[in-house]
Amino acid sequence: MLNAIALAVCILSSLFLIAFVLLHSGRGGGLSDLFGGGVGLSGGTTIERRLDQLTIVTAIVFGLSVFWLAWKWT
User: Are 45 and 37 in contact (CB under 8 A)?
Assistant: First the structure.
């Protein structure tokens, strides 16, 4: 039962991680240009910084779920 939940979390977090990485700006495009902002010396717009945080949290959840499945899978 717990492995099924961990597997669902792993699959969902992997899909969200793919989406969040694809939303990041490359060399001058991405989500910040979509809303009219530009990337300056301040580290980007508020949306880009929030997207960075979401990507990091999603990557941590994905990593933990993969480690759990590798450790407890029977």
Answer: yes
- CA-nearest of 2, 3, 45, 1 to 24 is 45
- Cβ atoms of residues 67 and 61 within 8 Å: no
Q: Read out DSSP for 33-45?
A: HHTT----TTSS-
pLDDT at 7 over 90: yes
DSSP letter, residue 24? S
Contacts of 14 (CB under 8 A, 6+ apart): 62
Q: What is the tens place of the pLDDT at every residue in 14-62?
A: 999 999 999 887 665 555 556 655 545 455 688 888 999 999 999 999 9
Measured distance CA(10)–CA(16) in Å, rounded? 10
